[in-house]
Automatic annotation (TrEMBL):
It comes from Catenovulum adriaticum. PROSITE patterns: GGDEF (PS50887), RESPONSE_REGULATORY (PS50110). Residues 125-242 form the Response regulatory domain. Its EC number is 2.7.7.65. This is diguanylate cyclase. InterPro entries: CheY-like_superfamily, Diguanylate_Cyclase, GGDEF_dom, Nucleotide_cyclase, Rev_trsase/Diguanyl_cyclase, Sig_transdc_resp-reg_receiver. PANTHER family: DIGUANYLATE CYCLASE DGCM-RELATED (PTHR45138:SF9), REGULATORY COMPONENTS OF SENSORY TRANSDUCTION SYSTEM (PTHR45138). Coiled coil: none annotated. It comes from the Bacteria.
């Protein structure tokens, strides 16, 4: 049931719309229209991804269904057409995930966004740093309600150790006044290792009018909250800052990867391989260029979509065969690999094994399945000039094509 959304609403049209959104996003859903039906369902099953609940039901008019769901530890957001401020305040005083007024089409867009966020949050870890157990417990409760994974540290040193050991931490929420190391000192230390785009930091300052907020921001915090804050503001700032680092990560991914195959692109290959050839000992490495044979014929015979599919499947095979090495799509039907820590014989063996595998691998394309071959040129890295190595591999590739394709040729200087 962890993929099931429980919809509690006596308005059939609203329930149907929520159900359609849930199904579109890949969730299952169960709909109940009264408190009586809700009790019946929860007597059998209480593990739900979340609940979308109305404030007022025919047999429970004052939010009793919300209290019941919360008492069963089901993350619940309220969707209601009761817009009075008093209702809103009453709902927000409960431990709900969110409050949504069923006013316009935007309310349903908001629900879709919220469901995606709740799903996505399961993969995000947030580190809470505070020496006061009660403060940690409060923040933890708020974060768990939105499905986040939570780690806790009672001082700066513990926080730094956790960051080292838990690479899935995407955000730190820290207090200022702590023994041994203040929050600001912790932010300074974190920023020596992690940029604003890699790891978001939200600082919590105890005194609203102090200059602490400005000091936190100047020292590298992404945002600052003053105590006391309400959960709505806390969540808004958490999401805003997470979205920021996620957008930056998306832009970075797009800049470094090929859109079609999702392998690294030529630009990234030059940047990374350039660094490796300049700074690492690469005498025991090889550089290979792999080019599919007669690829134009696949496009001509089966269409461009089939060609795209072949490129994607080739990329997947390359990634799994050469895991741990730098693999990129160079352009068109050409790929490049930097084979590190590999003797020339081993590189030859691995590349020959790959083209043999490719030749015998049935690729599924629309309405058909085909196999393809590839030619490979490679060179042992005896120079640290990347351009030169690529030229040498290219000369060997040209020979492989001329010798009849479907073979690996080593550059001999
Ligand atoms: N489907 C698809 N085709 C592409 C893409 N990029 C380049 N191509 C096609 O790849 C083909 C490459 O053709 P050629 O350079 O003649 O090479 P080839 O047919 O593989 O012949 P040899 O390399 O000599 O064996 C061209 O038809 C390009 O249009 C792409 O992203 N998708």
């Amino acid at each position: 049931m962890n993929n099931t959304i429980l919809i509690v609403n006596d308005n059939a049209a609203i329930a149907a719309r929520v159900r359609a959104i849930a199904n579109k996003l890949g969730f299952e859903s169960i709909h109940v229209a009264s408190y009586f039906q809700l009790e019946k369902v929860l007597s059998v099953e209480t593990h739900f991804f979340c609940a979308c609940v109305d404030f007022s039901l025919p047999d429970a008019k004052s939010g009793e269904a919300i209290d019941f769901l919360i008492s069963q530890n089901i993350p619940s957001f309220v969707l209601t057409n009761q817009l009075a401020d008093t209702t809103r305040d009453a709902v927000l005083s409960k431990a709900v995930v969110d409050y949504i007024a069923a006013e316009t089409i935007h309310s349903f867009d908001y629900i879709a966004k919220l469901l995606l966020r709740l799903k996505h949050n399961r993969d995000i870890r947030i580190l809470i740093v505070d020496d006061a157990l009660s403060a940690r417990n409060y923040l933890k409760k708020l974060l768990l309600r939105h499905n986040f994974k939570v780690s806790e540290a009672s001082d700066g040193a513990e926080a730094l150790a956790l960051l080292e050991n838990q690479p899935d931490i995407k955000m730190v929420v820290t207090d200022q006044t702590m023994p041994n190391m203040t929050g600001i000192e912790l932010v300074q230390k974190i920023r020596m290792q992690y940029s604003l785009e890699q790891l978001a930091i939200i600082a919590i300052s105890a005194t609203p009018k102090s200059i602490i907020a400005a000091r936190f921001l100047k020292n590298g915090a992404n945002d600052c909250l003053s105590k006391p804050f309400n959960p709505d503001e806390f969540y808004a700032r958490i999401f805003c800052n997470l979205e920021y680092i996620e957008h930056v990560a998306e832009v970075q991914f797009a800049a470094n990867h090929d859109y079609l195959t999702r392998l690294f692109n030529r630009r990234y290959f030059f940047e990374r391989a350039g660094e490796i050839t300049q700074h690492d000992n690469i005498s025991n490495s090889a550089l290979a260029i792999i080019d599919l044979d007669h690829f134009k014929q696949i496009n001509d015979q089966y269409g461009h979509d089939a060609g795209d599919s072949v490129l994607r499947q080739t990329a997947q095979r390359l990634e799994s065969h050469f895991r741990g090495n730098l693999v990129a799509r160079f352009g068109g039907e050409e790929f490049c690999i930097l084979l590190q820590q590999m003797s020339p014989d081993e590189a030859l063996g691995r590349l020959e094994f790959f083209i043999h595998h490719l030749e015998h691998f049935e690729m599924e394309i629309p309405n058909n399945s085909i196999s393809i071959t590839a030619s490979v040129g490679f060179t042992v890295c005896q120079s640290n000039e990347l351009e030169k190595l690529i030229k040498q591999a290219d000369i060997a590739l040209y020979q492989a094509k001329n010798n009849g394709r479907n073979q690996v040729v080593e550059f001999k200087g």
